[in-house]
Amino acid sequence: MSQRVAVPLPKAYLLLNHGPTVLVSSAHGGRRNVMAAAWNMALDFDPPKVAVVIDKATLTRELVEAAGEFVLNVPSREQAALTLAVGTQSGREIDKFSKVMRSGIPGDGAGATAASMVGAPLIEGCLAWLECRVIPEPPIQQSYDLFLGEVVAAWADPAVFSNGRWHFPDQQRRSIHYQAGGSFFATGDAFEV
Amino acid sequence: MSQRVAVPLPKAYLLLNHGPTVLVSSAHGGRRNVMAAAWNMALDFDPPKVAVVIDKATLTRELVEAAGEFVLNVPSREQAALTLAVGTQSGREIDKFSKVMRSGIPGDGAGATAASMVGAPLIEGCLAWLECRVIPEPPIQQSYDLFLGEVVAAWADPAVFSNGRWHFPDQQRRSIHYQAGGSFFATGDAFEV
After folding, report:
1. Which of A32, A79, A119, A178 is positioned for an S-S bond with A75, CB 3.0–4.6 A?
2. Residue A50 C-alpha, separation from nearest chain B C-alpha, in angstroms
């Protein structure tokens, strides 16, 4: 199981700056869910803000609107099959935590842990976590499925993120970038210019 | 110089789905500019929409607000130094097209070409291009520096994007993901799950 160390809030944007696909976790009224989101980005430095697209058809949408909170979890390559599975199945039809995340998919992370500032859970086995409170903007939520959030706590596995920089010594334990179908890219070589 | 083939609009989101850093080009009233933006994402499939953060201090902001148009250009690893340069210098102080893009930076792409549907130029040497019209949402532009755009034309170099998929046979001719300082990641291995 991965470690989790607090990331100072002014550095939280760095967790998303390179454009990884994330898992959006949510909880409300005794229900919880997780979905995949390639359409996410940082929106501000300090206080840190994020933007993410959450389709109206999803259970995640219902839970995020009700709770006003979500977590962006940055999955590793080991969790790509899990990411695809939670991105293609609906929480309205199955309990993803019992049916998908514990299904034996390699690297599934096997569960969820309580967050520090929000009710949505942290997905285990991920590389980083951003706990967010929705910044209410009902017109853009309704028109574009676009949700803005303020990051109220951030965490990372120090084996892959420390001192404000990602470092991926391992081919499997690195972030991923969804393309389409079952196709992803791993985050590749780091280089300086 | 790279080739440029039209990408069907319903596939345009695939150009951004994996989270590359882009160059935002703009033009208005005889002036033009280009800046880097790690904070971008796809926002819808068809008609395709995008979201991008454009800071109030930038000349790009002034030109995009005046023209109501911009282009998101997906630069290659060969253009990382150019990306950093146009991301750290202001178009208010220098003409980036004459001072940066023709400065001899390796892979600088050497210039710009007319777009098909918008006045903002296409940056030469890039991997893909999304011509966009601003979807006016003044409150979120003002509050969050957040701009939404409808993609009205899209293009890609068929050597790296065809049939709705990216493929990067070459280590240099692949997309990039900005981290911080002068540090980037290249898009890495493709894999299927």
Report:
1. A79
2. 9
